[in-house]
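Format notes (please read before filing issues)

Several people have asked whether sequences and structure tokens are stored in separate files. They are not. Every record keeps both together, in the order shown below: the sequence lines, then the token lines. Line labels are part of the format and must not be stripped during preprocessing.
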Amino acid sequence: MTTLPNIGKPATNALKSVGITTLEQVSTLKKTTLLKMHGVGPKAISILEKALTDHHLTFQEQSVNDHLPQTEFAVICSLNCDNAPKRRMIRDYLLAAASGNQSLLESLLSDSFRWIVPGEPPLEDKAAFIKAVLKEKKELSTLEIQSILTHGKEGSAHGILTTKTGNKIYFSDIIRFKSNQKDAPISEITSFVIQ
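Then the structure lines:
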């Protein structure tokens, strides 16, 4: 494993905050992803690109199959096998919720959507949930999705949101789909959040 070159304290801290400490880890990311991270600028990218080249590595290329919704923040996740529609739906839900993408949320959630946060009364309305998401939206530097699991009409995901001020929000969502069908909308989410 090759350590990171001297890319400056802000860029180094930004990468370390999401667990990236080696050039091999950098080579799994796209330049565009890194540039969205608060603290990583063109100079750091240039230094990283030279170091990658020196070690016979490159940044990950943008794939024509890469259909991630657009965000202002870096998204770090791997779907491993990208032939699981419900895994993509969960990923897209996480991106939509983090970025406040109202139209994407509306397309992913069922009309009879229910949101549960333990210790609080459940929200029984898709529109009320979207309103709450938009109200609580944070200025993010990074969304790191650590895992997405699906089976039948259930799924789960967990990860870390990092704000532009460096605060971390740890989340875990347990998700129910309306049915077992591959394009079934999300009908219920139970969310656990640690700030």
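For reference, the curators noted about this record: The longest helix spans residues 85-99. The radius of gyration is 18 Å.
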